[in-house]
Predict the 3D structure of the following.
Amino acid sequence: MEPVTLTVVSAGLGKPSSTRLLADRLVEAVVRRLDARTGELTHAEAQPRPGGGSVQVRVVELRDLATEIAHHLVTGFPGPALREALESVERADALIAVTPIFAASYSGLFKSFFDVLDREALDGTPVLLGATGGTARHSLALEYALRPLFAHLRAAPVPTAVFAASEDWAGGDAHTADLPSRIDRAAGELAALVGAAPAVRKPRDGSPRDEEVVPFADQLAALGVQ
């Protein structure tokens, strides 16, 4: 079993960024869940990465790619850093995508990145959706804006999306309200989908994917849904 590759796309604009903070919390929870699943395997079955883990994490900070994304939109050619980021998303076993909410939707930078992504790059990829905003009133943007976007890209968003408002970080402490429970629930759902290993995912070496499709009922069963 190869290590799971987890790519994180963060569209936060500031430093520090609450969007990146949420992304980091989601990564911690997902890695913990995936490592726990690997721990259930025998040492002969598992192939951990250096440091004892079974997950390889790559973080894509869109603020650092803003210029290359704009150039790609008008020229059709990605720069080196953007090309590497796009390939990281395409080859990932799972994706965490987090954006700030501006004007009741995802940020323009977030949308522009996925606009230049290959249309088949996310076919069948499990995705955990996250967003941040000044008030919880923006939380529905996850359902009417982000989820349709990833459905259009034929990804597989997990049922639980995570929104963090300003009050969730009160006093700089993430352990407020029910944010930790939402993060943990979403992480468990993503880990379950990764463990189900849908056959529709594109092979990492770029070879043609197996056209066998895992029945939807089997995918629900992997999530524990009756």
Q: What stands out?
A: The CA atoms of residues 36 and 54 lie 9 Å apart. Confidence is low (pLDDT under 50) at residues 41-52. The domain at 4-222 is CATH 3.40.50.360 (Rossmann fold).
